Amino acid sequence: MGFDDYLTKPVERDELLQTVERLLGRSEFADLEQEMYALVSKQAALRSTKPEEELAESEEFAELEERIANLRSDIDAALPGVESDEFVAMVRDIEADGDVGSREQGQSQATEEGKGMGVGKDDDGGE
Amino acid sequence: VTVYRVDGLADGVSFDRGTSLLLTGATAETEARLLDAVAPVDDEKCIVITTNMGADRIASELHDRGVDSDQIGIIDCTSHDATVEDATVRHLNSPGDLTGISLEFAKLVEEFEDTARARVGFASISTALMYAETRTMFRFLHVFTARIRSGDMFGVFAMDPEMHEDQAYNTIRAVFDCEAGSANDGVELRGTGFHQ
Predict the structure, then answer these.
(1) Which chain B residue lies closest to A77 (C-alpha atoms)?
(2) Pair B48, B75: CB distance under 8 Å
(3) Considering only CB atoms, which chain A residues are within 8 Å of B138?
(4) How far apart are the C-alpha atoms of B89 and B106, rounded to whole Å?
(5) Do residues B124 and B141 lie in contact, with contact meaning Cβ atoms separated by under 8 Å?
(6) Are B174 and A40 a contacting pair at CB < 8 A?
(7) Is B104 exposed, middle or buried (0-12, 13-18, 19+ CB in 10 A)?
(8) pLDDT digit string (tens) for A105-125?
């Protein structure tokens, strides 16, 4: 993301500090969001392979759900009040990252994503 | 009033401001439900992002539900090029243009600035997933729902689970506060952010 995009010169001290704070918040949001995706993928893999009754009794699954809930509040706290211009900037960043992958390739990636995401595979990376 | 009332989903259900709902089921079914849910009442506005139905149909369906032209904003990502005179319409070339969607959304929100409340419809995630990876869509929807929360809006997103691997569906659904799926005799609501 281009730092200059967020400021019009001349820059006031308060405005600069606010912008830095906001960018730090976005960076934290991105980190937490990455952890969130890993946990949610794990949760999704369990949901896709085990019956609901079994998951309801699983301590591991309950713990996972709790971690996801906690992470959700952390993410909300990292970036309170997302305004329109920030939303656009964040989506632009997301799309720039995603372009490295297989955009415009059609429907096949939905199947690709599902592969290799075995239950119990340690893909949460954040522990 | 601090909630969004919705008729047609279930009897007398209302959603807290900032809530995002995932509507699941067959496309024809969820499209109709989505339009019911996003149809603004009183001084509300609505913004509908469409990937399947053309803007002209969205507008006429909303008019059928008693919505005025100046309450409707549509981001049309289909290749339909019909002229719509009774709603504000923005055209995009592809449902995969997520930055374009966010930009047009920001502009429409700005145009509606004098209103306190807006409903947002996205139909559908399933089509968008043909153009963007699950990971990218997850991130996009995460930021989008954060924007909806900040703006005290109400978001309604449609998805047909049958069109995707369980893994993709189960990942995407984790973004939302609540989910309305088809049950035997109607709709079953699960999650948080709503009152029945």
Answers:
(1) B146
(2) yes
(3) 37, 40
(4) 13
(5) no
(6) yes
(7) buried
(8) 443 444 444 333 333 334 444
Q: Which of B107, B139, B152 to mutate to test the interface with A (most CBs of A within 10 A)?
A: B139
The first and second tokens of residue B121, run together, are 């419809």
Lookup: tokens for B194: 């709503």
**Does position B124 have pLDDT exceeding 90, yes or no?**
yes
**To the nearest whole number, what is the mean pLDDT of chain B?**
92
Residues of B with CB under 8 A from a CB of A: 94, 96, 98-99, 101-103, 105-106, 109-110, 129-136, 138-140, 142-144, 146-147, 149-150, 163-171, 174
Residues of chain A with pLDDT under 50: 1, 101-127
Among candidate residues B189, B172, B184, B100, the one with its CA nearest the CA of residue B129: B172
SS3 A8: coil
pLDDT for position A111: 41
Query: So what's the ipTM on this one?
Result: 0.90
